[in-house]
Structures are given as C-alpha cells and as structure tokens.
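Service request form, structural biology core

Requester: graduate student, group of Dr. S.
Request type: structure prediction, single chain
Budget code: on file
Notes: please return the result as structure tokens.

Sequence provided:
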Amino acid sequence: MTRLLAVVLALALGSASAFAPLRAPLQRSVPVAASPADEATKLVATAAALALMAGPAFAITADERAQLSYLQVKGTGLANRCSSVAGSDSLTVKSGNKIVDLCIEPKAFFVEESTSNKKGDVKLDFVASKLMTRQTYTLDGISGSLKEEGGKIVFTEEDGIDYAATTVQLPGGERVPFLFTVKELVAKGAAPGNAFKPGFEFGGAFKVPSYRTGLFLDPKGRGIATGYDQAQALPGLQSGVDGDDEMFGENNKVFDVLTGSIEFEIKNVNAATGEIGGIFVSAQPSDTDLGGKEPRKLLLKGDFYGRVE
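Core staff response, request fulfilled:
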C-alpha cells in the first residue's frame, strides 16, 4: 500500500515539474517517526495537493504551445487557455489583412438577478456565478477580415470555433445554460486610427443562436421538428383558451436567434509576430429553452489573443 502511494506521489511530482520555473520551490518534509497509517495519509494528502497545483495551466506563448505534443497538452488545461503576448508595439492595419487564431477565454461569469438589501429594496444586479462546464468553454481558431471604414478599423468574424455550450450556477443553486459565442461579430474601433496598440478598443454586436437545436425534445417529448405538439400528461391545462395561453411557450417551440455585444481592449502587441492580446467584456442572453422561458442577461470577462496576417 505504501509503495503504491509512493508511486502516486512520484507521478504527481512529475506532472508538477513542468511548471516548476513558474512558482517557488515546494517545501516537503517526511516525519522521521511516523506510523504506516499516518505516513500513508500524509502521502495521499501531499499527492492530492500537488495534483491540484499542477492542474490549472499557467500563461503560455504561441511559440511554446507549438512545441508541445498532444500528450504533453492533454490533461493540463492548456487547450482551454489563450496564448499570452509580450510587447507594447504598434501594428498598422490595412484593408485586406486578417485576424487569425483569435482566442477568447472567459474567466468570470455574472448573471443578472433580483437582489434585495437589508431594507427590503429589490433591484437587478449581476451576481457572480460558478462555472459548471468542464474546460471546453473557450472560443478558438476564429478568423475574420480587417478593413478600414470611415477612418476606423473594422473586424468581421467569418470562421472558427465560434460557439461553446456553457452552464453556470448561481449561489442559490439555479443553473443557467447559455451558448457562449461571437457569431457574425462586426467589431469597430472605438476611435479613429489604423493601428493596433496598447489601449486600443474595438467592439460590436454578434448573433446568439439557440442553445438547443431543432431535434431537441423536452421532458414531455415536445420539440420543433419532431415530438408531440403538447404535453400528453397535462390535458386539463391545455384545454380552452386560458389553458393554451398558459402553456403556449412550452408547446410552441421556436429557434430563437438573439443578439449580444462584446468589447475588446488591447494590452500587448508584438509587431514582429503580428500578435495582439488583451481583455474583453461580453454581454449576451442565456438559453430560452426553445422559447419556453425568458432569457437571463449574462456578463462575461476574460482574456483574448489573436494574430494579424
């Protein structure tokens, strides 16, 4: 048993060694006189702590990422992280240029919810939520054209992994699914200028397709392209005009296409490689359950990375 735990510890130390230059050396100590049970318990605790420390991926540049194999990336979280950029250059943009490898990584998720203070006053506020989705929520490989219009840079999204099904949980336990996306984004520079540089801001509106598809069936077997027209277990509520009004949204499924907006601020530019990076803030609606409920407003904040070619 002790030998097996020692192997687990060795594996944990091996996975953590890749990130050793990025953190202070770990201090380890083994009691001189300890019972086998105590030693095994401490080995398990140490291995678990090291595994947790090695889990989240640290910042990595595009060049460093390109040198890693699939097995070196697998299980580290790097596939869900955007590359980092160093530099404070200025990069002139011309019509015909493109942004490629655009990566958008949200790091904070807020949902609009009614809150009340000690006086009982109710107001709408954005509440921090807990991410429930595994590390598959980052948009990556997005590309689009750049042009100069009215003295401003305009970016039009055209291709890439531009949507990701994501779910967050509110402090009360309610879960809010949404489709994180930037489909058909048209982002314009906030001020006249034809160069990407630190402090430059650009943004615009995009489309938010339905979280569900046409073949999805709800728990009562109702859908858009297939399934029942109404819930078979609730005939009483669906008889007459009043009953149909109450269940109209649940019985008549629709593929909602809503809108959102996003703002980017460039923090770093490397003119030699054409790389840009910075932060973003996105506002978009949540899932409507195929028209059965009102969408919630979401606010997302995080980092982005792109390359101009």
